[in-house]
């Protein structure tokens, strides 16, 4: 197969592509396989406490469509039932984590609002996500005891006892096949999230996995090993390559929509979007102890395709009833869609950053490149929307930094998102500045050489000039740090929160009709880049093809899917508190 042909366009007006791993590469399972057995997996991830249907943006093959009603646990329930009915051989239902956090009701109840609706879905297993510690280690344990399915994680340990906080794996029998399900969550949780959230827990690295895979193979005698990770697609792919004995790799954290699976040797790596807007289903056929056929489909849970399950809808209505008045309180109105599906700049975050800047009275404001929150459609903006945008209500911190600090800050942000080493692709998308800052960069340049220009209010940033800045303050953050700008001076917290800032901004502005020019622009990419990792695949593939052609040798698609981790690289990099 021509290696260029393994890619297909998967985003609107941008370079991101996804690796096609066609079932044509497998041996067809048919009547010639007398001992063939099938099983299926339905996979959701990163629901982020989005209990109800919500506005959504779908994109694929250069086409995009905004819909006003998609997803919701009631629609997931309908999809699960339909998929199971079509698969009498048996299906496992798996949740990839980041389930209890991400909405107002989730925050107001410390995730408790999710328990009854989740228990109605008939899930078989789940893994914790990086935001599963949002309400503290004790609450995570409490939630895990209240759901009616096991939560597994091989690398979370109790700091005091040294014991695992969760069982590392689960063995399930489906259609006469033994399936080993192995869980692994982000070992960087103590630095991605404020440290107090995971206090009492110890997160270990991926070295814990291979002995457990061997245990599943040699002692549990499983037929298939399914690795379920919450580390992001950019880390799941190289990790899958490094492990022996994995058959299927289910990824979560980065909200990537892998309409076509990524093939790593003989293993498929997939991720199923976010917010309960999509469900992925994989059908596997086994014969002679091997996978001989597999199919993957990422299903969009649109209103016109899937009705809401009335039973689950009733439960959701009941658990949300105490919160409806607060959720529905109007704080503004928008005439445009407010979205967050872009690596570099989004309308939603431009509004937030400008609001923080205005309330703080500073030269600039900075906000994280969060991935959570489905779009907000034209119409009223409610408290529920605000809590979707900002599930953490942080007090605003202000201070001053020199231009050189801002330059260094942006170089580090670029490395977090566009590093040539996949192990350094960290956290979320690019940080979001207020719209009076203009950041021009080249994502393909070397580390610490990506920034092309940096301006504030149309004037070039002077390295020795002092600028005031504002951002939400996080527990455990050094007193002299604002966002990830270190060694700031004259810092203080002003008694207003990020939520206060947005409410005030909307009250003063009236209808939102536009959110300004994107303040962060890449000089070698279109303004819209939906995927952090799928673009990374394409670029590395093209580089390797060029290298192989230069060596007068054909590129091998099995070895050029993504780069291996080069432990000898010494590019400067900071990863502190860079969450999604």
Automatic annotation (TrEMBL):
Residues 40-256 form the Calcineurin-like phosphoesterase domain. Residues 1-23 form the signal peptide. Keywords: Hydrolase, Nucleotide-binding, Signal. Residues 343-470 form the 5'-Nucleotidase C-terminal domain. Residues 567-580 have a biased composition (Basic and acidic residues). The keyword Calcium does not apply. Residues 456-478, 540-580 are annotated as: Disordered. Belongs to the 5'-nucleotidase family. This is Trifunctional nucleotide phosphoesterase protein YfkN.
